[in-house]
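User: Metal-dependent hydrolase, Alteripontixanthobacter maritimus:
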Amino acid sequence: MNAPAKFETETVRDPAFVSPAPSDLTITVRDRRFGRDTAPRRWWVNDDPVATAWFNALSATFPRGEAFFIESVKACRNGAAPQLRDEIRAFVRQEINHTREHVAMNRMASDSGYDIAAIDRRVEDLLAQIKERPAAINLAATMALEHFTAMLGHQLLADPVHLHGAEPEFGDLWRWHAAEEIEHKGVAYDTWLHHTRNWSRFRRWKVKSLMMLIVTTRFVKHRYQDMLDLLAQDGLTSAKWKWRALKYLFGNPGFFRKIAGGWAAYFLPGFHPWNEDDRELIGLYESEFSGAVLAD
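Assistant: Predicted structure for Metal-dependent hydrolase:
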């Protein structure tokens, strides 16, 4: 494991760009690797096929998705203030590491007997369709998806029920990913504010809100369908399992139910990801991670 690389932020931000992000925010690139020598059980989340399907379905989207995030943000960084440029560089390095680890995790899912190629193709086809869109639109999509990943990260660190009984290496991978998603949750949004600085407030709000509605519809629909496809590979195709998947997402533990407030807040005129400073969850993760390393 390599030592974390820290990108220190300036305490005084460029007057041309004022962000609600904490002035003492530090984005840390934690170059960690997980599960390389692990052969986990097929239902690696608490022997639960539904929970396993949820996390495997998410992981299958990340390699191509995070490459899209990186390119969308980089395409809109020209002229950014030094503070934001530093944060974009840290964001890119974090996302590259996330991609690498989810490639490894997806290989584990394939080794366990799951065919996740259909999920990857769906993401590839979608990205091919939007490749020629204006940079601002792609950034708006990235911004919406980054809000989803930040809310996911918050949930994973705030409520241990989501990863209860998970294989240790892969539970650690998701908590690591969660901490960094919280940490860089404002980067795409601040890049958007920079890139659209000459837009009217109404135009900016309209585009980001419409894109969030589109992204939400696709994200919920596709992740549920991906879960059903993976469950079908376990022979679990009855109405009972479709209901259990819905209950998992909207009932208990209910990821979509629990993020409803954070999702709705995105549409408020004064929204910014750092309106909620939840860095204490990163501190909790770091203390638990350090304790686990020392215990070994």
